[in-house]
Amino acid sequence: MTVSHPRTQLNPAFQNPLRFSLMATLAGVTDITFRQARDYLQTTDSTLSKHASALEELGLVQVKKSFVGKRPLTRLALTKEGGQAWREHLAALRAIAEGPGVFPADE
Amino acid sequence: MNLSPANARELLDRAESTTRGAAHFSFAWLCYIALCSGGAVAAVGLAYANVTGASPLPAWLAAGLWITVGVAFIAGATSLSPPTRRGFNSRWTLFIILWVALWSVVSFLNSHFTLGHGTALAAGFMVLAVLGPLWEIIALRRVAK
């Protein structure tokens, strides 16, 4: 039986530190406004926008745009697929953190 | 992506602290406490009016005031609240359904109330007022694995 190393289960979409932090943020909230996420992650509008769009294109993050009065309001939330992908990523990290095991596929 | 176990643990710690710190207590629960206060006032006031034969109007007015304040501020409290913990909508909906159920009993059956019924229903509203926010606090402390 071939058992692959857990690193192969890591999602390359979350390799970037900001995307990783954005996913971790969204995993804990119902949704979050763009401004709240920007302030929480201590980043800039353009950087957050770029990475949120990339995750949206992958179907992992939902970007909802609306208006409050005349002011635009953008909210970010995890999609169902995003939640699943994040849980799998964390599971792979946990498997790596547990230490070296025997992975015949690597031999 | 090659990670050592130490790197992986560091990432897991970062993920957990980021997830944990992202959500906060929703101000909407303060409105829920106001709704429950209104329910408790109505339950006891209407029972008292029923037993003594006094006018139920003061009970309706006092309860209505609390409920109006609660309802009036829900939208504002929700929009001004910081991000809420995942699952907030389900928790909120469940507790609103429970409140509506108790309120229906108070509204439609109050002509049969004894003081005991009123007190029991008021206690029910109090339990809801405690359990809703408490569940939210517990959800805030827990981070899904």
Automatic annotation (TrEMBL), chain A:
Residues 18-96 form the Winged helix DNA-binding domain. Pfam families: HTH_34. InterPro entries: WH-like_DNA-bd_sf, WH_DNA-bd_dom, WH_DNA-bd_sf. It comes from the Bacteria. This is Winged helix DNA-binding domain-containing protein. It comes from Corynebacterium humireducens NBRC 106098 = DSM 45392.
